[in-house]
Amino acid sequence: MAAVPSKKKQYQIIGVLGLFSLLTALAGSSTNLALPRIAIDLHVASSTATWIVQVALITTTILLVMFGHLGDLLSKNLVFTAGGLLFTFGSLLTGVAFDIVTMLVGRFIQAIGAAMVMANSMGIVTENFSDQNRAEALAAIAMFVSVGSISGPALGGLIMSFTSWRWIFLLNVPLGIIGAVIGYRVLPLPHWHWQDIRTATAGANWTGQNLFTLGIILFFLSGSIFQNGLSRWPLGLGLLVVGTALTAWAFVQDDRAKKPWLAPSLARNHNFIVSVVLLGLAMLVNAVSNILLPFYLQSFGGMSPLGSGLIMVLQDATMLLITPLVGWLADHWDRTKLTMVGLAVLVVSQLGYITFPATITLWRIIPPIVLNGIGMGLFLTPNNAITMGVVAPELTGVAGSFNSFSRTLGMTMGISLGSALLFLQLPGVRQITPALGAHFMHAFAVVFWIATVISFVTLIVVAWRAWRTPKQSTN
Q1: How many distinct helices (H) and strands (E) make up the chain?
Q2: Which residues lie below 8 Å from residue 202, measured CB to CB, with a gap of 6+?
Q3: What number of other Cβ atoms are within 10 A of residue 22's Cβ?
Q4: Which of helix, strand or coil describes residue 99?
Q5: How many angstroms separate the CA atoms of 449 and 148, rounded?
Q6: Residue 26 half-sphere exposure, CB side, CA atoms within 13 Å?
Q7: Could you tell me the end-to-end alpha-carbon distance of the chain, in angstroms, rounded to an integer?
Q8: With b meaning 16 or more CB within 10 Å and e meaning fewer, what string describes 142-180?
Q9: Residue 213: CB partners within 8 Å, gap ≥ 6?
Q10: How far is CA 89 from the centre of its chain?
Q11: DSSP per residue over 213-227, as a string?
């Protein structure tokens, strides 16, 4: 095992990992807020603008587990550093984009870099910190992510109040360059030749990765077809069925491969699979409000970007505030029951969104947003503890990577589902405006009725797990 770096170098490593974790979290949380303004400036429909978020999440979903595995095969430092540079370049391209195609290409590159960073951060901590202070280092990086997620809407709103939305992305460029320079100094890079890389990755299950990539792309393209109405529903349904089948077959093929991306014992660990599926469903529900609220607050309600950003930040701020208490409860109370309470609160929050008024009234719209944060905060920590508690110690790395994959997939599906269901009910509408009136509010409510059903089904599954395996539900 390599020697543990000095304290000074450890602080520098935390700084680099934390900086890129902060930037990737900021990019995700602030972009949602900017969508209405971007749609107007780039002269595209509101439904098309949602792909600025979706293309990044889909790309990250596809590549997250692969880059984690490549970090093990090659070098975590190498993959992470290259990811930081790609993220910075993608931010530059996105910030200067003057049409939707360039914007999507920039977001695609940005997302590749983000996946490389996210997949290897925890592994770099594991390699450079001893057991005695590793948890503190991971907690510090998690704090950077939380700060990025919380400050994203407020910072994005502040930027758009004084200047162009482009600076949401362009600010990443100088900070990314600084992070890459420091990372090059503190994260030793191997002197790889192309032949060395080919040798190290020989035998990796590229067939399974390609099947998975194609399946995910087709699956989410079906949402784009449905967004434009039911006139081409056979094509949308065909893409949905084929995409789902290919994605499922990718996991079957990977399980039979000589060098699978996902350890076979994890794929057969039913408790683990149920936990990550529950995480994906909860993140799906949570993402629906993240994608629809900017259109309700800004485009329909006429609120400023800063004002809507401050309202949306309440959800993540609430999650951050209650997380320490939830962590303590998860160590002293039945974890499965805690997740059930969280999901019950999440159900109530979705019902609250259904009652949103046509004219923005703060005392009616803030409680559901806060309840959403409370519900997710009560669910996430104990569910993560249950997930990692049923995994063998030697598989915690790949298990953590797959847990992140499920989280990202759920967010991607939630954004795709929410936007598809909304705009499917608004055929021919290019921009959300107050003139849509009751038509928009009805469509908005229908989407959250479906989110309510999904969150309730998730609650039922957790209750079923508690009933079937009561011993697993305790810490």
Answers
A1: 18, 0
A2: none
A3: 23
A4: coil
A5: 30
A6: 26
A7: 32
A8: eebbbbbbbbbbbbbbbbbeeeebbebbbbbbebbeebb
A9: 62
A10: 21
A11: HHHHHHHHHHHHHHH
- Distances from the Cα of 359 to the Cαs of 149, 188, 323, in angstroms? 28, 56, 33
- Which residue is it, tokens 């701020």? 317
Which two three-digit tokens encode residue 288? Answer: 């629906």
SS3 59: helix
Q: At residue 412, what is the residue type?
A: T
Tokens of 404: 């992140």
Amino acid at 184: Y
CA torsion, ordered 51, 52, 55, 56, to nearest 10 deg: -150
229 φ/ψ sector (left φ>0, alpha ψ -120 to 50, else beta): left
Task: Give the CB-side neighbour count of residue 289, counting CA atoms within 13 A.
Answer: 34
Amino acid identity, position 104: L
Q: Which pair of tokens denotes residue 396?
A: 């915690």
**Rounded Cα distance, 76 and 133, in Å:** 20
Question: Whole-angstrom Cα distance, residue 142 to residue 160?
Answer: 27
Exposed/middle/buried for residue 324 (C-beta within 10 Å: 0-12, 13-18, 19+): exposed
Name the nearest CA neighbour of 36 among 228, 337, 291, 241: 291
Read off the pLDDT of residues 391-439 as tens digits, 9 standing for 90 and up. Answer: 776 666 667 677 778 888 898 889 889 988 998 898 888 889 999 999 9
Distance CA 99, CA 54 (A): 17
- Show the tokens assigned to 259: 């060098």
Non-local (6+) Cβ contacts of 187 within 8 A are 13, 16, 77, 80, 81, 124
Instruction: Compute the distance between CA of residue 68 and CA of residue 398 in angstroms, rounded to an integer.
Output: 8
- For 267, the token pair is 């794929």
Q: Which two tokens stand for residue 181?
A: 């320079």
Q: Which residues neighbour 199 within 8 Å (Cβ) at sequence distance 6 or greater?
A: none
CB 381 within 8 A of CB 404: no
Using one digit for the tens of pLDDT, what is the confidence trace for 1-58?
A: 456 677 778 888 888 888 998 898 888 778 888 899 999 999 998 888 888 988 998 8
